[in-house]
Design brief:
It is a single chain. With about 450 residues, the chain is of the alpha+beta class. It folds into 3 domains: about 200 residues, Histidine kinase-like ATPase, C-terminal domain (Heat Shock Protein 90, 2-Layer Sandwich); about 170 residues, Ribosomal Protein S5, domain 2 (2-Layer Sandwich), CATH 3.30.230.10; about 50 residues, no CATH class. About 35% of the residues lie in helices and about 25% in strands. It has 11 helices and 19 strands. Strands 1, 2, 3, 4, 5, 6, 7, 8 and 9 form a 9-stranded mixed β-sheet that branches. The chain has a 5-stranded mixed β-sheet with strand order 10-11-14-12-13, sandwiched between helices. β4 and β5 form a beta hairpin. α8 runs parallel beside α10 and α10 packs across α11. The chain starts with 5 loop residues before the first helix and ends in a 5-residue tail after the last strand. The structure holds 3-[3-(1H-pyrrolo[2,3-b]pyridin-5-yl)phenyl]propanoic acid. 3-[3-(1H-pyrrolo[2,3-b]pyridin-5-yl)phenyl]propanoic acid binds next to α3.
Length: about 450
Amino acid sequence: MSNYDASNIQILEGLEAVRKRPGMYIGSTGSRGLHHLVWEIVDNAIDEALGGYATHIKLELLPGELIRVTDDGRGIPVDVHPKTGRPAVETILTTLHSGGKFDGQSYKVSGGLHGVGASVVNALSEWYLVEIHRNNKSYQQRYERGFPVTGVEEIGTSDHTGTVVTFKFDHKVFTETQVYDYETLRNRVQELAFLNKGLGITIVDLRKEEPVENYYHYDGGVVEYVKFLNKNKGRVNQEIVYIEKEVDGITIEIAMQYNDSYTSNINSFANNIHTHEGGMHEDGFKLALTRVINKYGNENNIFKKDESLIGDDTREGLTAIISVKHPDPQFEGQTKTKLGNPEVRQIASQITGEGLERYLLENPNDAKLIIEKCILASRARQAAKKAREATRRKSPLDTLGFASKLADCRSKDPSISEIYIVEGDSRVVLLNKVENRSIKRFYHFVGKF
Ligand code: 0RA
């Protein structure tokens, strides 16, 4: 670089910090960190798509473990940035971003847990090449370990817009694993396609002689995700519940369908990140689910007298996707995969409530199947509880040879209870004289009579 002024020095210090403590920025320098580099670049392209500017993203794994990400967005601006006196693309690729707003106007909706931006990938790459199609021209710039080694060069004309990033991770930083796993990348690419309806993503592995390629594009988004998760299961409601709404700049999308299994499969996401620890969006959803199904059962006289469902009953066999896009997500918890924004709970609950009530009203056959499934879950739960209690009561007494018809003693008052001492067994059982019932506790006899 020609002239080192104050802002250049700041940039150099920033990149130096990343190279000194890479784990602080990408979590680890193992396999996860290596793959994280890819997501950081893909996320930027997804932001361009979520803004409505890009429709297709291509992720290529090239021989030599190079990664190339191509999008058909607007292309990163190349004009000289007034503050730094450098081209905008160079500023973006050499300045650490804290996540948040990307270009000062639009929200950065996607973004890894670390949300650190392309400059970190650049700093941790042996080399990094950006190619931009914009203004009917094509440009490129090359970096080594984060430092620009060329200017932004005009290399020709172009009939389209978009950005192509190619990089080689720094083998001095990533010493543990130096190979990308296609299946890991393919899985996440498919998940990203499910979570961002209408977006097409291609992944190609060109490392071996025979290329491997997958293309994902779901106009149905999360509905197709639920369909995919339930594809080998017996479905309860045929029509998948779909709810989408934006409130105060927060978009919530929900898809759900019951299957004939007994497990709950609720997956929540915030800004495309799988919130394994749940959070406010999931809490709000669950609250509304229990509330609305109970309300439906009551209003339609489906319940027996005094019958009601607990949360677990309404989630048995449920496959659901809850996806929130929030301008300022707060990630909490042990693994930072819990959405903490308090306002999201109420919004998610309200949106789920309205959407589900409407679905039940408009799909009476599916509604009936859903509520019957929940009632069955509730009755099975209560029957299992009774059976469990009976078994627990029986076993200690049975070992003493008492008939299992003895029930728990209701009184702890010794004046109306009797001690039965059983010969040959060191345990002593208190029985209730009046009702001839044993009490729960039994004692180890240690002394002599
Ligand atoms: C800043 C401003 C504009 C676009 C982008 C960044 C941009 C960044 C990335 C990263 C990967 N692909 C990208 N595509 C675009 C908007 C500039 C304008 O107003 O045209």
